[in-house]
Amino acid sequence: MSLLAISNLDLEIHGTPILRDVSLSVDPGQIVGIIGESGSGKSMTAFAVLQLLPNGAACRGRVALSGHDMLALSEPALCALRGNEVGMVFQEPMTALNPIRTIGDQVAETILIHETVSRDEAMKRARDALNRVELPEDRFPLSRYPHELSGGQRQRVVIAMAIALRPKLLIADEPTTALDVTTQAQILDLLTRLVREDGMGMLMITHDLAVVAGMADEIVIMQRGRVVERGACPAIFSALKHPYSQALLAASSHHPDRDAHQAAPPLLELRRVVRDYRLPRKTLFGPPQVIHAVRDVSFAVERGESLGLVGESGCGKSTLTRAILGLEQVQGGSITLDGQPVFDGQVVNRAVRRRMQVVFQDPYGSFNPRHRVARLVAEPFHLLESPPQGAAREAAIDVALLSVGLTADDKHKYIHEFSGGQRQRIAIARALIIKPDLIILDEAVSALDVQVHAQILDLLADLSTRFGLTYLFISHDLSVVRSITDRVLVMKSGEIVEQGPTAEVFDAPRHPYTQQLIAAAPKLPDSTAA
Amino acid sequence: MVRYTLKRLVSLVISLAVASVVIFLAIEVLPGDPAAYMLGVNAQEDTLAALRDQLGLNGTAWARYSTWIGGMLQGDFGTSYTYRTPVAEMIGDRMQVSLPLALMALTLSTVIAFPAGILAASRRGSFADVLIMGITQLGVAIPNFWFAMLMVLVFAINLRWFGAGGFAGWEAGLLPGLKSLTLPAIALALPQASILARIMRSSLLDTLTEDFIRTARAKGLSRAQALRRHALRNALIPVLTIIGLQFSFLLAGAIIIENVFFLPGLGRLIFQAISSRDLIVVESVVMLLVFAVVMVNFAVEIAYALVDPRLRASR
Fold first, then answer.
1. Predicted local confidence at residue A286, as pLDDT
2. What ipTM was estimated for this complex?
């Protein structure tokens, strides 16, 4: 008998259908991956298993967890199962832990609420659980607080909480989406090891095909609340039947059509750029500590080129971006665009500044929700000496919206009327409107679903050909950088450790750190990626 | 934690020093002769000179400031011009009423607000929530002096459970003293409790949507357990801020209630001192209140750090 058997599950929230006729099963020791875009119902399926659904939710069908009919159980009976028979790991490790209680306390709580043991005993077992997730006692005593840990370490604590009682089923909802590529690989290894050691079943939810391809025994593909395809992994990849699954796979390994870059004079040049931050003093009179965010970085971007900058969080990518945009002054070295310095004395050089624009990661947070699209898109006009007025201004807005695949009518709408992908198009339109030479894309596709992501990459490739744009593409996602850049820089601890043509760096990385990054990136099975 | 406390202490001393200078400047250095102001326009020249001498107005500003501060540090607040008694003694007498009154009102308001706020948040949208929100809306809207008079009518005049006003004094024993402060404390606590309950509710509701509450529920905690063990302490920071502000207000802001109940408290002392232009008393009482506010803020900041380990570490 299956450990978890979901059959014909329907879910409505306040009358809106969320899940339709979902059936899947997980056996002991089996890893089942659920894949789908945001809104496909994959997380709601997980919450339906735990019966942790929002108010107004109504389920029909059957969810059986080791013989218990989850839809029929009382709330106290469900509480007795959650954390005990089934553990759960969430997407956002930074907020998944209570900030004001120690990690030992929080792991021990799982044990204390399900078993009648002494606090000392629970703490001892919490220690064991933390050791199992590779947080050793000497560096991670039970008295640590979450804010003293990194994202990956916090995710380990959440996993320790979930497995402390050795549950039969582990549900992981996008457990690595918020993490860097090397941390992601470590967490995935850890989860796989725990599943194998304890003979647990695992339900792994993700939007990233490559993440589950390497670890799942079976894959379930969901679209708009329905299961469209399921099958054994990796065999399923070579025999996908449903058009949606095929489109998903195609998008995952999508390479936009681009012309190879021809050598050209440099547009943006950085010479020996240094940016330090002072930390608050530790003692009243001692010297302040200094953190070197960017150390002695030099590179050039040629006109018409697409340059990638990769590295993990904290490596100095964002600091460098802000320095190039003139949002922060550097302490050493020079940044020039076409030979003109970004900083003119103490103030930003507006003549240079209006020739570059930026597109940020978060398509939800980077717009003022109270302005109409026309006003949002026209914002960069304030950089111009004599911005277009009246009809010329309207025409410029229309052209910008049309060039990113939206319509001129969209300018009368508000931002909440658009999807994530459309918002990112608007962000690109906003960058294009003053016809810049250089566009900096700061994790511009990282928050998007895989299909939308592929469309935006196509759009960017098309725009660079049409307008002769130069891109600086900053990302921690190696597959994105690989598909859209001519050259790539690898940054670690504020320094560029490797640079070269993208294909060369990816095929034959020289620096150990680059090798580590590339090895850690999840890959689709070879037979399908071609 | 020690470093955090020391840092707060340093900022406490600096705030007090700055406040004392501002008060001193406002009253003594600004144009106009305090002695003439206190005695009125028809004062005799020799009376003025005597008062100036008594006020110590005849030295340099620095000398006068250091005499004032030095005196206060030794408990000498000067002598009231109108009452001819030491200000320290007067403040001491009034504090016997104001401090217990403020503490009673604050305790009462917390004891009412916490359960009400928690109940409303944990049963959001229920009848209990709607009822509590309705009552607290009224509590914020009703002027406390009107509510005070209503209570006097019901409990003092009709039921005769309490006196209608005045303070029995602690010499008569603890109970009569507390009894005479009960109605005023309720009148003061009602609006404060209403505000506090609403803050508690909204802060808890915010915390209940946090990811770590979902984590706690996935561990197997019931809604009530998750609220008690994970949400409550996290929701406390804004509540502590309001409690701090309320205590400072209760200590000196009770002028109207003190008048309704004829209580000899600090609020009335300031009021009388201002009406009789007794600048010595005004200056000292204002400084004392500043001291109280700064001390309460200090206590609140220490409480923040006890609640939130992130503050202990980072500041």
1. 66
2. 0.80
